[in-house]
């Protein structure tokens, strides 16, 4: 009886982190997608000039590289997830700052 309980607890203990990792990785992917969407929308509306757009997209590529390296071993550790989330928080802040700084694309002057 005790061996069965111990085996069940061991199985649950091993399975929970494996089940939690894809959800965390999916949330990272969803957030990346949303940030890229925000950048593209700001570019289309003229809120970002070419240099701002390139800088923000470079930052997104850096985060994607971090994610790719973290997933390379098949498991995104808590530390890796925290570092990616931290980078995404900074990127989100940069997206807001750049799209609200008053600098616009050259064509926005005529689109108002």
Sum this structure up briefly.
With 112 residues, the protein is mainly α.
SSE order and pairing:
Layout: H1 2-45, H2 50-71, H3 78-99, H4 108-111
Helix pairs in contact: 1-2, 1-3, 2-3
Please give a structural write-up.
The chain is built from four helices and no strands. With 112 residues, the chain is mainly alpha-helical. The protein has one domain (21-105). It is rod-shaped. 12% of the residues are buried.
Gross morphology is rod-shaped
Question: Would you tell me the structural class of the helices and strands?
Answer: mainly alpha
- Fraction of residues in helix: over 70%
Strand coverage percent = under 5%
Q: How many beta-strand runs?
A: 0
Indicate the radius of gyration in whole angstroms.
Answer: 20 Å
Main sheet: strands, sense, barrel:
none
User: End-to-end span in angstroms?
Assistant: 75 Å
Total separate domains = 1
Unreliable stretches covering 5 or more consecutive residues: none
Query: How are helices and strands ordered from N to C?
Result: HHHH
The overall average pLDDT, rounded, is 85
Q: Count of helical segments? A: 4
Descriptive tags:
mainly alpha, 112 residues, single chain
């Amino acid at each position: 009886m005790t061996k069965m309980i111990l085996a069940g607890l061991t199985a649950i203990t091993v399975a929970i982190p494996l089940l939690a990792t894809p959800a965390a990785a999916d949330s990272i992917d969803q957030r990346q997608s949303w940030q890229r969407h925000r950048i593209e929308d700001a570019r289309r509306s003229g809120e970002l000039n070419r240099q701002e757009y390139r800088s923000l997209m470079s930052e997104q590529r850096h985060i994607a590289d971090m994610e790719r390296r973290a997933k390379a071993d098949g498991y995104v550790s808590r530390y890796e997830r925290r570092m990616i989330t931290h980078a995404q928080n900074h990127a989100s802040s940069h997206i807001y700052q750049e799209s609200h700084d008053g600098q616009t694309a050259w064509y926005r002057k005529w689109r108002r």
